[in-house]
Amino acid sequence: MRIVFFGSSDFAIPSLKALKEGGFSPDLVVTKPDAPRGRGRKIYEAEVKLAANVLELTCEQPADPHDPEFLAKLKELQPDIGVVISYGVILTPEMLAIPKHGMINAHASLLPLYRGAAPVQRVIRDGHAETGVTVMKIADKLDAGDIILTETTPIGATENSGQLRVRLAELSGTALVNTLKAIEAGSATYTPQDHSKATYAPKVEKEHGVIDWKLPATEVDMLVRAMTPKPGAQTRLGNKRFIVIEGQVEQDLYGMGIPGGLQSSGEEGIRVCTGKDLFRITRIKPDNGRNMTAGEFVRGHHIAPDARFG
Fold this sequence. Notes:
Layout: E1 3-6, H1 13-21, E2 28-30, E3 35-37, E4 42-44, H2 47-54, E5 59-60, H3 68-77, E6 81-84, H4 93-96, E7 103-107, H5 119-125, E8 130-137, E9 147-154, H6 161-185, H7 217-227, E10 233-237, E11 240-250, E12 262-266, E13 269-273, E14 278-286, E15 292-293, H8 294-300
Parallel strand pairs: 1-2, 1-6, 2-5, 6-7
Antiparallel strand pairs: 3-4, 7-8, 8-9, 10-11, 11-14, 12-13, 13-14, 14-15
Helix pairs in contact: 1-6, 5-7
């Protein structure tokens, strides 16, 4: 099969490696141009481009993949199929029609649940016990194409979105290889999604990570895990902002605390009262500071007995 691979973020790299190792080496890898990052705005090479170079795959970086010159080059390649994962560009019908078998996409949710940009954060925030990867044929509407294959995985009780994202990136590679095998053998099935059951996962912004300590500790925990590592679960203590990185729910035997108030703080953590039970912070990062254990934080900061997060 002649394959064109579209991907831009680090999430796409395990799939690119899996295709090469699984006997489906892409004839062309398409990624975004090199771009500036950081305060110095230094130009860095695109991560997928670097991975393609290591794998000895041909790579193109069109500023606009719909540019007529690039489309002509793609048509000349006469691909059998296009594989898209975490590319970040909506492809036009003209582009989608170029490969003989169309284009497929691996999406990090069990569609039709969590269509959109942030399925990993949202599935943890909403308290689901499992998620997975769906490989679908790309349609005009966002994440609404026919389903070819799904792979499920449980969500760990303490797993954050960064950890789950790594696992789903690896699972996407396995799912894509299995899908291409089925398409090559002519055994692939295409099942329409039940659009009435669709939910959406729009991009997560900083303000979505603000902790409301009036919520039960279980919901605070889900928020912290969903927002870690990005964009971070935020709270304030006095006039300073902090990112809560890790913690756990503990039963509040007395239930007398004010939400956001501290029940205790020490080497074992900072116990914060919530709307129900306690949330014991075990890792915290001061604004513009480093990630540290709660014990390190307590030793280095004076915390008043009547201090209150919020």
